[in-house]
Amino acid sequence: MSLALAYTYLIVAIVAEVIGTTALKASAGFTRLWPSLLTAASYALAFYLLALTLRVLPTGIAYAIWSGVGIVLVSLASWFVYRQALDFAAMLGMGLIIAGVVVLNLFSKSVGH
User: Fold this and answer.
1) Is 66 inside any structural domain?
2) In a domain, 85, yes or no
3) Cβ–Cβ under 8 Å, residues 96 and 88
C-alpha cells in the first residue's frame, strides 16, 4: 500500500470516528436505536481503516494525527450540531493541536516521506 493510500484511509477513518462520536451523543447512552447503530457502524469502519493505515504509518504517528484531527473535528461538529460553545481557550488549544499535527507531518522523519 502506498503512503498516499494510507493517508486516505486515515482521513476516512477520522471522518468515520467523528460521525460516530457525534452520533454517540445523539444515542443518549445507547437508548436510541438509529444513532446507536450509526455509532457502532462508524466506529467499526474507523477502526478497520485505522488498522489498514497502520500497515504503512507508524502507530504513534497515525494515532497522533487521528487524535489531534479528531479532537478538532469533533469539537467543531459539536459546535455546529449541538450548539456547544467554544471559548477562546478551546479554540487556542485546538489551534495548537493543529500546529502539532502539521509539525509532525512536515518535519518528523518517522512518517516516512
Assistant:
1) yes
2) yes
3) no
Task: Show Cβ contacts of residue 5 under 8 Å, excluding neighbours closer than 6 positions.
Answer: 56
Q: How confident is the model at residue 103 (pLDDT cuts 50, 70, 90)?
A: confident
Cβ pair 112, 60 in contact under 8 A: no
Q: pLDDT of 21-65, one tens digit each?
A: 999 999 999 999 999 999 999 999 999 999 999 999 999 889 889
**Angle between the 59-82 and 88-107 helix axes, to the nearest 10 degrees?**
150
Considering the domain boundaries, does residue 112 fall inside one? Answer: no
Q: Which of 61, 70, 56 is closest to 12 using CA atoms? A: 70
* Cell numbers for 6: 494510507
pLDDT class for 111, splitting at 50, 70, 90? low
Q: How many domains does the chain have?
A: 1
